[in-house]
Design goal:
about 170 residues; Elongation Factor Tu (Ef-tu), domain 3; SH3 type barrels; 2 domains; six-stranded antiparallel β-barrel; 1 helix; about 5% helix; elongated
Length: about 170
């Protein structure tokens, strides 16, 4: 399995018990969705390794208490602390309305209610404090904050996002 075919679920943050149980901090607003997992991919030495789960349950809302098969003691668990967890993209819950996953809007046309057509989304930069739409506007890069107030309509059938950004923001780039 390749990382490109998966989504980041969270990170193993610490041991829970002397029996090898671990706690993972999930990167989601709906942690309860993932409390009945059968397996996950663990990023171990830059390879995604499948780990099968004996049991998992929520622990203090955003932590998932995981008991992996073949992780039977503290030493085994210690090796996994800090490892990232991934699941295949097809395990993502379907979103409706104007909600979207960053990977699914790549290639969408972007239009502003005042400016008109801007360009096509190349991706989303989420390595900054504010996630940014990275838009190709005829060879020029336009960066617009991913902000619910700016998103007026998401049309999955037409692969288009309609925005209403502050006046002058687009012109800075063009």
């Amino acid at each position: 399995m390749l990382k490109e075919d998966c989504f980041y679920l969270g990170k193993i943050v610490r041991k829970f018990s002397f029996k090898g149980e671990l706690l993972a901090k999930l990167d989601t607003d709906e942690a309860e969705t993932y409390q009945n997992l059968e397996s996950v991919f663990v990023d171990f030495n830059d390879k995604l390794i499948p780990f099968f789960i004996t049991s998992c349950q929520l622990h203090k809302s955003t932590l998932l208490r995981i008991d992996f098969e073949d992780v039977e003691d503290e030493a085994d668990a210690e090796d996994l602390i800090g490892a990232d967890l991934y699941l295949p993209l097809d395990k993502l819950p379907k979103l409706t309305g104007d909600k979207f996953y960053y990977h699914e809007i790549t290639g969408f046309a972007v239009e502003d209610v005042s400016y008109g057509p801007i360009g096509v989304i190349k991706g989303v930069n989420d390595n900054t404090s504010q996630a940014l739409f990275v838009i190709d506007a005829n060879g020029k890069e336009v960066l617009i904050p991913v902000n619910d107030k700016f998103i007026k309509k998401l049309n999955r059938e037409e692969n288009k996002i309609i925005l209403d950004v502050p006046e002058g923001l687009i012109e800075i780039y063009l």
